Every structure is written in structure tokens, then in C-alpha cells.
Amino acid sequence: MGDVDVGGSSLPAVRVGLNPQALFNQGVSLDDVRSAISNANVRKPQGSVEDDSHRWQIQTNDELKTAAEYQPLIIHYNNGAAVRLSDVASVTDSVQDVRNAGMTNAKPAILLMIRKLPEANIIETVNSIRARLPELQETIPAAIDLQIAQDRSPTIRASLEEVEQSLIISVALVILVVFLFLRSGRATLIPAVAVPVSLIGTFAAHVPVRF
């Protein structure tokens, strides 16, 4: 596989919808809100631990992750009273991009768009992916179902089958025409052997280079 794009989903995020009237009443500026949120999500070194030969830096992850953690965040003081984020804004758990969604069979879904390498064989790539699906299904929760939404290989497989049928018909017609004109089984045997052998040799030469 050359690349995998993920669609129909977005990473979790907390959305803050500011109320302009509440900001004005509390004397809070947009910069106050921005600074308070930024300062609440700063990773700072907490010290270090060391011995005679090693030193380990200690950092704590104090980032806020849910709306419930953001709501009581103090962003300003108005006449000595603390103004919290929930006082001037609606704070909800959401996703980074609310316009990004995926559906399959009228159900929410996450789409994985797989692209092959330029030099890879698309049939072999598809067969490999299909063979790995049962194994991947066992590693995820049972409520999640892996399905193939779109597969472009059937048209390619059909084209290959048409080429194979055309070759067989062509060889048969060559042998038939030679027999009808020469009326000799021995003379007909030569193209009957030479044509298939030449075709097999031609395609065999393509196998090492995966053409």
C-alpha cells in the first residue's frame, strides 16, 4: 500500500461558543479567553531525577480534554468575583471538524481510502487486503464491522478475463484457418504448437519484472 486516507471522522475536540453579550456584561475580552485557555494547556517541566550516570526530565500532561474540565476555567475577575468560561460561553464536547462525516448503509462510518504504490499490482494489493480483513476484525471491538465499500478491481479482473478469452479464440481461429487452407494435420500442428509457446514465452518474460 502506498497511502491511506481517513475520511468520515474527526478527532475529538472541545468547542467553545462565546456569548458576546455575556462577554460585554462581565468585561471580558476575546484575548482574556484565548490567554486563559492557552495557559491551561501548557506543558511545563516539573523537575528532573538523576543518578551518577543518567538524568530524566519530568513533565506532566495537564492538558484539558473535556468540556467539563474547561467549564470552571477562570478567565477573568470582575469586581473581585471570578468569571468562569461557562459564564460567558457554551462549552461542549465535539469534534475538530463538524462538517466531516461518513455514512454507509445509512449508518455512521469511518472510511479508509487505500492507494497502492505506483509499481504495485492492483490485483495482488486487493487480494492481500481482503485476506487481512478477518485478522483485523479480530483486533477491534465486536460492535465495529469492517466492510469493503468500494473496490475497483472487478473491472480490471473482467478486462483480464476478456483478454484471456480473446487470446484463446485467436489461437483457435489461427489453427482452424491453417487447417482449412492446408488440409494437413501435420502442417496444422506447427502453428498449434508455435503460437501458444510464443505467447507463453512472452508473458513469462514479464513475470520477473511484475509487468
From TrEMBL:
It comes from the Bacteria. Keywords: Cell inner membrane, Cell membrane, Membrane, Transmembrane, Transmembrane helix, Transport. SUPFAM superfamilies: Multidrug efflux transporter AcrB TolC docking domain, DN and DC subdomains, Multidrug efflux transporter AcrB transmembrane domain. GO terms for molecular function: xenobiotic transmembrane transporter activity. InterPro entries: AcrB_DN_DC_subdom, Acrflvin-R. The keyword Cell inner membrane applies. GO terms for cellular component: plasma membrane. The chain crosses the membrane at residues 165-182, 189-209. This is Multidrug transporter MdtC. It comes from Leclercia adecarboxylata. The gene is mdtC_3.
